[in-house]
Amino acid sequence: MVVKNLLFVARVLHLLEPYCEDKQSKIKEDLEEQEALGDGVAYADEKAESDGEEKEEVKEELGRPATLLWLIQKLSRIAKLEAAYSPRNPLKRTCIFKFLGAVAMDLGIDKVKPYLPMIIAPLFRELNSTYSEQDPLLKNLSQEIIELLKKLVGLESFSLAFASVQKQANEKRALRKKRKALEFVTNPDIAAKKKMKKHKNKSEAKKRKIEFLRPGYKAKRQKSHSLKDLAMVE
After folding, report:
1. CA quadruple 148, 151, 155, 158: dihedral positive or negative?
2. Of 12, 74, 145, 153, which has the fewest CB atoms closer than 10 Å, so is most exposed?
3. Measured in Å, how far apart are the chain's first and last C-alpha atoms?
């Protein structure tokens, strides 16, 4: 029902958009300006970045009319935030991915091409993610929609759009690594805290995965050393 409602809204927004001959180039400019694409390799590192982008985008959206491009970008950000903050709950991403597949089929081979990079981006992020709690059903759904898009627009058009998404993802990954390296020099204390937090989250995720695969398993806790235990006994 959610997917059907979103598809209806998408149809209305697409019909309300003013017609212009350079519509495709305008959409491309908006994509480059807003930089809504991202990769899914390090979700934990994207949380602060996602929060910052969300605040800036809210300010920009206040005076901007709703369009189909805006709707796809908005849903892509929701999918990105869910993957970063609650990867074990794929409900929103499942609905959004199904909507992206449905809207692509509804637009058809010619009308979908300007929106293709935006549609591929969240699917690419999910397929290339490495977090331990990834839902295999969601990954299979992403792959199915990718194959659907490939058949819809043809291999050449799909490859060009996919390559642009992949290129931007690699650029964002490289920029993030550069910022991390710079932070270790300029703010070593903050960088060290972030590194410790990352290792802690990674360790907890590993424990949860083991508990999921082995229900009766309980991770051993480290023994706390009291003053009595540390005392020298002759």
Report:
1. negative
2. 12
3. 74
- At 141, the amino acid letter reads L
Q: What whole-number distance in Å separates Cα of residue 35 and Cα of residue 186? A: 27
Over residues 84-128, the pLDDT tens digits come to: 888 888 999 999 999 999 999 999 998 999 999 999 999 999 998
Answer yes or no: is pLDDT of 135 > 60: yes
Helix (H) or strand (E) holding 130: none
Three-state DSSP class for 42?
Answer: coil
Q: What are phi and psi of 67, to 5 degrees?
A: -135, 175
Identify the sign of the CA torsion 9, 14, 15, 18.
Answer: positive
Phi, psi values for residue 154, rounded to 5°: 95, 155
Closest CA to 118 of 61, 165, 52, 55: 165
Tell me the average pLDDT across 65-84.
Answer: 90
* 8 A C-beta contact, residue 103 and residue 67: no
The one-letter amino acid at 146:
I
Is residue 162 within 8 Å of 143, Cβ to Cβ? no
| Residue with token string 């597949």 | 101
- Would you say 43 and 131 are in contact if contact means Cβ atoms under 8 Å apart? yes
Enumerate the domain spans of the chain. Answer: 2-186
Find tokens 């199904």 and name the residue.
98
